[in-house]
Amino acid sequence: MGANNGKQCGSEGKGSSSISSDVSSSTDHTPTQAQKNVATSEGGGEGLNLGPCALSYSDLSMRTLSTPSPALICPPSLIPTAFQNGRGSSTSSSSITGETVALVHSPPPSARLLPPPTLSGLGPRGCPEPPGIERLPDPCLVRIFSFLPTNQLCRCARVGRRWYHLAWDPRLWRTIRLAGDTVHVDRALRVLTRRLCQDTPNVCLLLEAVVLSGCRRLTDRGLYTIAQCCPELRRLEVAGCYNVSNEAIFDVVSLCPNLEHLDVSGCSKVTCISLTREASIKLSPLHGKQISIRYLDMTDCFVLEDEGLHTIAAHCTQLTHLYLRRCVRLTDEGLRYLVIYCGALRELSVSDCRCVSDFGLREIAKLEGRLRYLSIAHCGRVTDVGLRYVAKYCAKLRYLNARGCEGITDHGLEYLAKSCAKLKSLDIGKCPLVSDAGLECLALNCFNLKRLSLKSCESISGQGLQVVAANCFDLQMLNVQDCDVSVEALRFVKRHCRRCVIEHTNPAFC
């Protein structure tokens, strides 16, 4: 494995690389709509769209150039005639119809693709003046390039030598983003890491974030490439990549010690997160078996159980954000492990974990003042008792989602309002036992409330809403869909909370 990874990450030139394509012929999830895949490298922090295509890699022979040589991926129909005829320094990785072609070319001459000089563009001595954009200093051009999508950035690299070098500025290649069902992600990662490893053989020190959400063709082999070549990785998102297993995740967290953000939501084969045995042996007793992850999203990891959560908590002791939505096998026992090992938790979601009850909330309440965000939506076993534990000990709570917890009444809402006066967002939709009395208590204590959802609360009327509007002037969002609220009450809210967006189902109010 080590030898193979060394080869795939080997250096044969200098500079960085990109993936670009203009083909949009792949099929979508629906038979009548085409889906565009995404391949992005971020310098300005924005996701960028590319054409959908698989990445051709096999038998790619790369020439060593004195200047950076990008591997441009484009459809055969768009290959310049010079390359199709065998002229120029290019290498085709595949000639199969429908496959993309990897081009490795030398930097273009500085005058290539520039418009011919005109009489109006002549300088004082009769020499052609450069276009206006050419007069910009290098930092300005790099800043402009940071807003371009990857395929456009690759095209800029072909304008001239100066643009070529600026387009491959390392600051523009700190993030790689791929998406789509038709992208051959494993090959793409091998090509990209090889080209990004050229200044530091076998190691890519530039790459800090890899976003592969929705790449269903991603396998453990692609993550092995990332683990072996990107020790400075800080962010990894593989949401919806259901072919990824525990072993690949173990390799990533073991070989990327700076990894802080991990999103494996929808990866149904991931049942645990831990260091590999080899990594655990190498760690000193001082460091123990800790992983530096602070943000972990395991939404829809259906196979996760209490024992797996125990291992996660024991290894990821620095967790501050943890999302376990729809992990239906978790129980109150698993939440106890979180409190034991992860005392720094600030945000926790156990939405739709229907085995969580008041006893689990009693454990969560032991996080005390550190907890800011809590979602227990559709946890049907939660009642006023559990809510009272949270309200009593988590006084700094700012966000609570208790939608669908039908056991919550006005008493629970009163506990919450009097203890968590700094609450800013509350969702108690589909709680039929909450009435105007609970709303009035909430409005008289939580003056900083900005978001309130009462969707499908059958006992709510206009009277409670008017008390909320008269006391919570900073209210920005109010959801009263499927509630029996009069038009007069809605207009009262609008007059007192002018910035409030009201979601309603009353056709008479506009």
From TrEMBL:
Compositionally biased region (Polar residues): 27-40
Gene: FBXL7
Keyword Transport: no
Segments for region (Disordered): 1-45
SMART domains (UniProt xref): FBOX, LRR_CC
Biased composition (Low complexity): 10-26
Pfam families xrefs: DUF7885, F-box-like
InterPro entries: F-box-like_dom_sf (IPR036047), F-box_dom (IPR001810), FBXL15_LRR (IPR057207), Leu-rich_rpt_Cys-con_subtyp (IPR006553), LRR_dom_sf (IPR032675)
Protein name per the record: F-box/LRR-repeat protein 7 isoform X1
Tree of life domain: Eukaryota
Keywords: Leucine-rich repeat, Ubl conjugation pathway
Positions of the F-box domain: 130-176
